[in-house]
Amino acid sequence: MSINSFLSSDNITIVTPTERVARDLRGRRAFLKRASGEKQWDDPSFIGTFRRFCTDQWESLFDGRQLLHPEQLLTLCKQAIDSSGSGDTVISSMSMARKMRQAERLIREYRIDIGHASAAFGSELSAFIQWHEVLSKRLAASDYLTEYDLPAELSIALQEGKWGPGELVVFYGFVSLTPSERHFVEVLKGCGVRVEIVESQVGKSSQLSHMAESQEEEVADAAHWLRHQIKSVPSGQRPPRCALIVPELDRHRGLIRQVLDRELAPNSLLAGRTPDEVENVPWFAFAGGSYLAELPWLRSVLDLLAIKRADNSAEDLSRFLLGFSSPLDRGLHLEAARLDLKMRRTHGWKVRGESFVKLLSSSRHMGFRHLADTLSRWLESSDALLLPSAWANAFEMLVRNAGYLNGDRMIRSEIYQWHAFQDALDVLRSLDAQMGELTYEPIYRWLDEICHTRRFSHDRASQAPVQVLAPEEAYGLRFDRVWVLAAEAKNFPGPVEPNPFLPVSAQVNAEVPFASSELNTEHSQKLVDHLIRCGAGVVLSIHESSGGSPCLRSGLINWDRIAPLDMKSFKAAGPKKPIRVSAKRTPDVFPKVSKAERERLAGGVSIFADFAEDRLSAALIHRLHLKPFPAISAGLTGAVQGNLIHDALNLFWSTVRTSEKLHSLAPARLKQKVSDSVVQAIEESKDVSEARHGRNLLALERFRISDLVLSWLEFEKQRVEPFEVVVAEGASTCDIEGMSFKVRIDRIDRVRCSDGQDRYVIIDYKTGQIVDMRALNSDRLTAPQLPLYATFTDLKRFGIETPHGVSLAKVFSGDLQFHLRSDWAEGLMEGQGVESSELSAMHWAGQLEGWRKALISNAKGFLSGESVLSYRPHEYLGNHEHLEPLMRLGDT
What we know:
seven-stranded parallel sheet, 46% helix
């Protein structure tokens, strides 16, 4: 008999494996009742899941034992593991508890007897038996009952005449019944109840196959095909019921949601919009619902509750700031972005709760200052030891005080999400007897666990034209159009995954579907047979490769009888007139730098460095002021480390001054002076703080910089000629082609040469691993600091008429170098050749002239608005990666 013949019956009980199947049957029954003109509100029939059926019948018995929900059982499983001491020897006792709960379910649902299990099965079984005994004693002592015990308990109560399900019970939509369910059916039949097991029904169907190059392309093709099925229906007509069936749905939720939002609900991608605001009925919905923690509004609530007195993840705080909702909404999101940037610039990857409150207090927005007061009070009280119910009340009060529940601003979906979150808090409240008093952190972890396992569905999700389902969720359903993703050998059949705590042989004997390859294949074949016929039109797709390995078609499907889908016809569907794309592009032209803009220019030397590297980059950075988004780093950035080395060397030479004094310092004294300079440099740095980077990291950095500076000074002792540091971090000005900017010179040495003359050499420290000495060449000049200092910088304020040389000083561990260009020598160190004075002077004069011409040319080019892109797609962008989207390197 078909299920439709039972749907029109009165006082019927229909039991299903999932709520999605039950909802579909209730809709079909309501349609049949309306068509026949029958009333529905007094209908005593039951259509629901087997779990709900058992729960309702058990509650009607008014038994004194407490029925545990899954989270309560998980709590007891974790306590059993922790009490044995095993929880201290594993990475995650929570993961072990989940596996233990699964084992407890299998024991009851598949009636597995572990009483005679042998120790030969391994340490996992021995440990589980110990935990199982602890759990069983706790359940018996507290009169607890799990939902997996209900079929057996109801069978006993039915045989004792304590309840009756009615004359007819129909089981529909089950791939297979478990031994516990089969035993329950036999008891029903033995008590005179008529039981019908109706197989899932399918109709006429046509199948097509599709091969995509990648997983992303496969999902995009599916979304495009589904969009065509829906949009091709004339206005006013009901769109077809479509399904997207996705193996391992939880792993691919993010990708599925991203692609379907783009193809089916593009308006939802607008700033400040959600799919629920755009449409009363969403275009697509996850049939099983979304986890509470996945919902943006509730994610923001959880981020608020996660803020603690100790270290917090800066990325989590950033997400909270940008997602924060407040009744004082005017200008809120702009201020949130400003605070986020400030936090990224001034804090590391960990931020203490008090520091975050201080950041909020500095805000100009009343909403964030109010939030700071609320959080401050919360952090002061978060060290308490409370019952879960008291913590749940505190969580709810914090959310209310933070301003999330302003009824005038909440949209309907947020109100429903809040009701679902209150249910999650009620689950937390129910854990008092199992958990007792706890501190904040373990309680929040349990709340987060609940929100990652409880699901929420839009109130009209079942009406969405596209339903996204896992293969098991689709069993028992019928659609107009169906696309099955990833119909691969690894998914159909899926992996064999017996529970590690139970003997595999016992699981196989009990016919647990995923315990052996034979059972798994049998289960998957039945599932596949339904999927390929659950719609009038079905597309089965795979992609060519994944992770470098080819994807193989499932052997459970007869691919030879399935024609390929002509996907090109769907992609080509569009305007009848072809769109002509002009090969000519009108380039953007930067105007000349005006006098007013010239006065506002900032960047100084970096303008010339960026312009020499790429004209367009220089214009975007220094004229449009495009800066990279501040990245939160776990430690000190290379730039900060380089500045600390500069500052330490400056402090050292400000007191030592001469090479003679450097040589006169005893090793212990030299080491102490270096250490003092490094400590002072770190203490005076605005980019480094113990609160941000931690005491241990700064101690390691002090040791590293001290060791590097000592190595550098020992290297400097090998210089041929005596010298005196006359300028260290000297400030001056540079004027070129009407551009005037301040510069800071790392160091100028007065070298006492062997010919009796004093010569001045400008030194620039380089602390990176790669230093291109050719960057000083006139035809490249990507390192313009020294050329600018030597040609257009005012050195007279230091008493220097003209410099006699410049040198790049590479201060990098294991690769210490001087690269000198001068009018008297090729190098500063022993073993480096010395040219004749006349030859060196001639080369130096030519070098200065080349630098002047190159710098003047670059200055004129920048001021005239030159902005030609000189990068090629294969070249590294250096410090300008943030400009890559604007440069459109793929089009060059």
